[in-house]
Input
Amino acid sequence: MRALPVALGLVALLAALPTAAADPVAVTVDLHLISVGNYDTAKGTYTLDFYLHMRWDPQQAPANFTPEQFEFMNGRAASRELLSDETGPAGRDVWYRIQANLYNSPAFADYPFDAQRLTITLEDTINQADTLVFVPGSTTLDADARVAGWRQNNLTALATVKEYPFGESYSRLTYTLELRREPVSSALRTFLPPVAFMLVASFSFFFDRSQASNRLALGTGMLITAVGFHISQTVSLPPLGALTLFDKVMISAYSFIASTILVTTVLVFGEQMKLPQRIAELVNRRGAILAIALPVVVFLALHYL
Output
């Protein structure tokens, strides 16, 4: 009879011990991107059309888990079509065809050689990371998925845990498609004109100081043309808080053209003061050296300081 109270005490003690938490259910997600549309570089908005396949073990899933309760954290689905929902020995498989209107913050620091990232970010709306985790599966990019004017890298997937300030954390799955501008065409379109402007402005150093009006017309004409070109190339970009690579190149070009105008102005004052011809030639030569060195110094200062 004494064994009965002892047994009851052991049962109560075991019941009081904390039970081990169950492992979160792993939901494997496959994604096949079909097309990219309506990409607005300035706003960072785009539309992605893709197939989404989710599979998991329904025996381990939380009671309140349903496949359609995921959401996009960087936009909204314009349409979500359920293609199939089957349960077999390997688990439950659900296929969707989704078209989503998404956005991401564009980065223009290296414009015109900038890289933009188009992302798809998924989270479950109910179950936190301790009960459900997303696992990246097959991630493929359709051969016909093209963005005009851009080179695209492979589609990649990354699973993380998002911690929120209100004490909740959710499993997050992020797909990233990196786009880069065509380097050759971008360089020719944006950097060849500034080089041409500086080259034309440099012709003023071959003019005699008696042709100051021609030298000034050449320099001021190139400066106005350079400013107009700069504005035309950046009008499609949003207001930025920092200079882009293209801005730094154009400011360097401005410094060269301004140097040619400054040297011409000094020569005009020298002629009015009746300075010797050899002094004028010296000023012209030293001014040419200054005009060549100044853009390099300006660009390095803007880029590294």
About this structure: DSSP finds five helices and ten strands in the chain.
